[in-house]
Specification:
The complex is a heterodimer of chains A (296) and B (471). Chain A has 296 residues and is mostly helical. Chain A is built from 14 helices and no strands. Helices cover 74% and strands 0% of the residues of chain A. In chain A, helix 11 (214-229) packs antiparallel against helix 14. The longest helix of chain A is centred in the first third of the chain and has 38 residues, at 2-39. The two termini of chain A are 26 Å apart. Chain B has 471 residues and is α/β, with parallel strands linked by helices. Chain B has 2 domains: 2-194 and 352-411, D-Maltodextrin-Binding Protein, domain 2 (3-Layer(aba) Sandwich); 196-350 and 427-465, Periplasmic binding protein-like II (D-Maltodextrin-Binding Protein, domain 2, 3-Layer(aba) Sandwich). Chain B contains 18 helices and 13 strands. The N and C termini of chain B lie far apart (75 Å). Classes of the chains: A mainly alpha (296), B alpha/beta (471).
Chain lengths: 296, 471
């Protein structure tokens, strides 16, 4: 009887979610499916207009995974994502712990730190371009303490570091903000009782703060991964993916193949690789949420 | 419960974040001509310093205008023809609006509405428009890109309308060929031409004990080395080697040059004559004669280095002549000479320029053709060249430059040695290989022969399938 009522209620709900479902199907589902289909064809500048492209199976993927440029770009994408995530999270967490304390000007300073997050990425890219010039701000500061700075954006070994630093500058406040909200969910009574039991600050951090913030930390890392892995505008503005593809990532490479080289199918195949990487992380994140709800 | 709340908050933030990014990436930078009219150029002083002997004639330059005129919004019932362009310097952005307004007053059948779209965005819009069909009536395109867009179906065949035009024979063959497909069908008309020359800071050259502009690659190398002044952050040479078509445009003359009496060509990059120019540029970066930042510089950046006195010699384009006198502002004397890319007395350069094509689905093809015929008439071509600081694409157009006459004469001479890029449907891939090879030489110290050999493995099959036209 109970099951019957629930099933009837479910049916009554379907018409209400139908508009949203149709919207997602058209706006999100169709482009994804079209992109998948395109990645298995040989659509390029020569056959787009005539519509004479044909299915070539996994040929585009085979070519990509044997292309040293693509492998370099895949490597760049993971290095960029993991490095950004590590620095943004660590520094963001330290800032969160610091600004969670109640002291004079904590609020205004926290607000000022958020400014970098509010600046459009294209502006951040232009700022980064100037800061990391051979005679830019960073090298000027380094020269004042007797260090000759590297040619940041013109050397393949340092260009990605410059881009990572600029992305961290934007990402740290975002991490800080989310982790502060996580910290506010940790009950103060637990800290008080642990103090009475003689726990040190370090013990409190590892035994109370971290375990109780586990969900918030996972969420921040997952969101950070998704947000960073598909980065485009920063490197597009700051370095245009150069020099010699050293700052190219999957998103910029897909754009270059499709809109500069007119190799539409190959560009789609790169986008599919990007999508699959994010899908795996997204599914992992959803599983965590569902598991958390079941536990509750 | 707390976990639930947290999950909801996080999911919400994710949606907001993704939404925000989605909207930013899909925003086009298209701006209407009306908006572009709000742009104003800085008030330019009319004359350059009297001390600049070579520039003293530049009393009235193309850049002496103060603002871009407004597009007449009143169509007076005439059919509206949309025209997209990416002219963004003060001189040509002003000229295109003036010309459209002039044509709109001349006749009442159609009203041409020019709209500025940034170059990158315009190219994206053409690519998307090839599928969606959302295109302007008339579109501007960089000449080497035209064949790709013809292949994509962006432009309409106008051979029947223009092929029999008796003035077509007055157009230079190179620019006109970039408006045709492999079978010779015509899709538009070239509008302006330009090429590259060498700008020389004569004060720095004289200070280094050299009295005349370089005439061979050896002279050039000596001049660059002699004028480099690291203590004052002055490089001997500045050019653009960025990983875009702009980079290829400036690098190409150093690859296709004449050495030991033999001119190299893009049809065989394994030819040893392709190497000396690139190897020399690599040595410039290695020895501090040229900034490694050239791999991130646009042509405007390299030009600015020269005008600021931070580079003694620089590769500059015809269009820079419209503003050079104002930008140098009498701080030093300069001369324009042929690019000394090879043996003494030889030179090589690259042809640039813009074409206007009639887009697929255009609402009135005949009217668009009539406008193009007027816009590219000998009289209008001559006027445009002076207004915008460009070279005409017709042999019967005789521009009477009121500024930089010597420089324009040099550019006109350089056109005899300038190479057209393509036309070839896969030029973007060829171009990518060329700038990548050059960046390997400049940044990694790879020899030009190795870098070009690697590029040739990609370019060769493309050219075997569809060779570049003979030049």
């Amino acid at each position: 009887m109970k099951t019957q009522i629930r099933s009837r209620k479910d049916r009554e709900c379907y018409p209400f979610i139908l508009p949203a479902f149709i919207y997602l199907l058209v706006v999100v589902g169709y482009p994804i499916v079209y992109n998948f289909v395109l990645s298995f064809k040989n659509t390029n500048v020569k056959n787009l207009a005539s519509g004479s492209s044909v299915f070539i199976g996994f040929q585009n993927y085979k070519e990509l995974f044997t292309d040293p440029t693509f492998l370099l770009i895949l490597r760049n994408t993971f290095i960029f994502t993991i490095a950004c995530l590590a620095f943004q999270f660590t520094i963001g967490f330290l800032f969160a712990l610091f600004f969670y304390k109640k002291f004079t000007f904590a609020g205004p300073i926290r607000g000022m730190i958020l400014v970098s997050y509010m600046i459009p990425m294209s502006v951040t890219g232009l700022l980064g371009q100037n800061i990391f010039l051979n005679t830019g701000l960073i090298n000027d500061l380094l020269s004042r303490i007797g260090i000759t700075g590297p040619e940041w954006l013109t050397q393949t070994s340092t260009a990605l570091i410059g881009v990572i630093i600029m992305n961290c500058w934007v990402g740290i406040p975002f991490n800080m903000l989310l982790l502060i909200s996580g910290l506010s969910n940790v009950p103060q009574e637990v800290y008080e009782s642990s103090s009475i039991d003689g726990a040190t600050k370090v013990q409190q951090f590892f035994q109370i703060t971290l375990p109780l913030m586990k969900d918030a930390i996972f969420a921040v890392l997952m969101l950070g991964f998704i947000y960073t892995f598909r980065a485009f505008d920063l490197m597009y503005i700051m370095t245009a993916g150069g020099p010699l593809n050293s700052t190219d990532v999957l998103a910029t490479y897909s754009y270059t193949l499709s809109f500069t080289q007119y190799q539409f199918s190959k560009g789609s195949a790169v986008a599919v690789v990007l999508f699959l990487c994010l899908l795996i992380v997204g599914l992992f994140y959803l599983r965590l949420i569902v598991k958390g709800e079941e536990d509750t | 419960m707390k976990r639930k709340v947290l999950s909801i908050v996080m999911a919400g933030i994710m949606i907001l974040g993704l939404g925000a990014c989605g909207s930013s990436s899909s925003t086009t930078s298209t701006s209407s001509a009306a908006a572009s009219t709000a742009q104003s150029t800085s008030s330019a002083s009319a004359a350059s310093s009297a001390s600049a002997a070579d520039t003293s004639a530049a009393e009235s330059t193309a850049s002496s205008s103060t603002s871009i005129p407004a597009v007449d919004p009143n169509t007076n019932g005439a059919e509206e023809i949309t025209l997209w362009h990416y002219f963004d310097s003060s001189a040509d952005a002003k000229a295109i609006v003036e010309k459209c307004n002039e044509y709109n007053k001349l006749q009442s059948k159609v009203h041409i509405t020019p709209t500025y779209v940034s170059r990158t965005e315009l190219m994206n819009q053409y690519t998307i428009g090839a599928v969606s069909g959302e295109l302007p009536d008339i579109g501007m395109v960089d000449s080497p890109d035209m064949e790709s867009y013809i292949s994509l179906g962006v432009f309409e065949d106008v051979t029947d309308e223009l092929g029999s035009w008796d003035e077509l024979s007055n157009f230079y063959a190179g620019p006109l060929s970039s408006c045709k497909d492999a079978s010779g069908k015509l899709y538009g008309l070239p509008q302006n031409s330009n090429c590259l020359c060498l700008a020389v800071n004569m004060d720095l050259l004289n200070k280094a004990g050299i009295t005349d502009v370089p005439k061979s690659m050896d002279d050039f190398k000596k001049a660059v080395e002699a004028t480099t002044d690291s203590a004052n952050s002055v490089f001997g040479y500045a050019m653009c080697a960025i990983s875009t078509e702009e980079g290829t445009f400036q690098l190409l003359p150093w690859i296709v040059a004449t050495h030991d009496g033999t001119k190299s060509s893009l049809s065989d990059l394994t030819n040893a004559n392709c190497d000396p120019g690139l190897d020399m540029l690599g040595s410039f970066v290695k020895n501090g004669n040229m900034s490694s930042e050239c791999v991130n510089w646009t042509q405007a950046d390299a030009y600015n280095q020269f005008c600021a006195g931070k580079a003694a010699l620089a590769e500059v384009g015809t269009w820079h002549m419209a503003t050079m006198s104002k930008d140098v502002n009498g701080t030093f004397n300069y001369k324009i000479c042929l690019l000394p890319t090879g043996d003494s007395g030889t030179s090589s350069s690259t042809i640039g320029g813009e074409n206007f094509g009639i887009c697929t689905g255009c609402k009135d093809k005949a009217a668009c053709v009539e406008f193009l015929k007027w816009f590219m008439s000998a009289d209008q071509e001559a006027k445009w060249a002076v207004l915008a600081g460009k070279l005409p694409v017709r042999s019967d157009a005789k521009p009477e430059y009121t500024y930089e006459q010597d420089a324009f004469a040099t550019f006109q001479d350089e056109m005899n040695y300038a190479l057209a890029r393509g036309p070839h449907a896969q030029w973007p891939t060829i171009s990518e290989q060329l700038y990548t090879a050059a960046q390997k030489v400049l940044l990694q110290g790879t020899s030009a022969s190795d870098a070009l050999a690697a590029a040739w493995t990609v370019i060769s099959p493309i050219l075997q399938e569809s060779p570049l036209p003979q030049q």
